[in-house]
Amino acid sequence: MQILKIKAKEDLKLSALKRGEIHRVQVLVSDNAMGVPWRVPLIIVKGMENGPVLGITAALHGNELNGISTIFKLIKEVNPLKLKGTLVLVPISNVPGYLENKRYFSDNVDLNRIMPGKPIGKTSEIYAHHFVSKIVSKFNYLLDLHTASHGRVNSLYIRADLENEETRNLAYLQNPQIIVQKYDEEGTLRSWANDNNIPAITIEIGNSNAFQHTLIDETLEGILNTMKYLKMIRGKPVNMVDDAVVCDNSYWIYSQRGGIIDVFPNLADVITEGQVIAKVYDVFGQVKEEIKANMSGVVIGKNVSPNCEAGNRVLHLGVSVMCPKPGHIPGNN
Q1: pLDDT of residue 97
Q2: Any idea which fold 250-321 has?
Q3: pTM of the prediction?
C-alpha cells in the first residue's frame, strides 16, 4: 500500500488524484521538538464522477475517539467506483493529543478554540493554521466528529446553526437523539468553515476514550444519508429525526460546593424545573448541596466523575424545543 506524503511547501491537490480509488495521504503540518514532522493522516476516496468534496474530521480533541471508528466503517461502505465527488476523511486531526491520549495539543491548548491558527505563533497556532489551510480549505461540506470530554458522557447530539438553511439541512440529515441550536463559537473549526462558505456541523458521539459501536453505527447512518442527499451515492435520503428533540439553546448547570457528587438523570431524560438532579456529599456521607434544575429540558450530557470541586460542570441541559420541528428531509416535499 503506497502512502502519499505531502511536504511542507506542497499543496494537497485533490484533482491530481486518480479517480475510482482510495488514496492514503500524510500531510505535513508542523515539526515537533525532534525536528520530525507532524503528519496528519487522510483517507481520500476519489469518485469516478465530479461532485462535492465532503470532509469528515475526527479526534480534533485527541481523546475523542468514536469518530475514528466511524470513519473506518464508512470506508467499507463506500465504493469509489460508484461515488460522485470526493470524501476526505481525517481520522486523527490532533496527532500530538492523540499520541498523548489527551484532549489538548502538546502545548496544552485546545485546538478547537484557536482556529484558524496563525502561520507564525505558538506551536498549536502553527499546527491549526496548516491544518485549516492545507486540509479543511479543500472541503465543500464538513462534518466534525467529537465526543464528551474526560469525566463526562454525551448523548448522540448535533450542534448546528439552525437558522442557516444549509447547516440546518446537514443537521436534519443525521440520526441523533438531540439537535441543539448553537451559533458558531469563535475559534472553533465549525465557525471557521461556515465563515468560509463551507457548511459545517458538529456531531457529538457519546463518550471519550472508547468505541461505542451503537452510537458509531447511528452516526454512520446519518453520514450515508448526507451523502445520498448530496447525490454522492445512490439512494433517496430518509427521515431519521422524527424522534429527535430539537432545542433552541443549552447550558451547563454547575456545582456550588465541592465533595463527592452523584448525578441522577440519564442521558436524553426529560427533567422538570425544580427537579433534584444531583447531590454533593462530604467525605462522611452528609449532603452538602442538593442541585436542582432551574429550567425544564432534556439531558444532553452529564458529569460521571464522583470527584467534584466547587464550580464543576454537573449536567448539560437542552431547553425550549423550537420550531420548525424536523418532519421532512431537506429538499423532499
Answers
A1: 97
A2: OB fold (Dihydrolipoamide Acetyltransferase, E2P) (2.40.50)
A3: 0.93
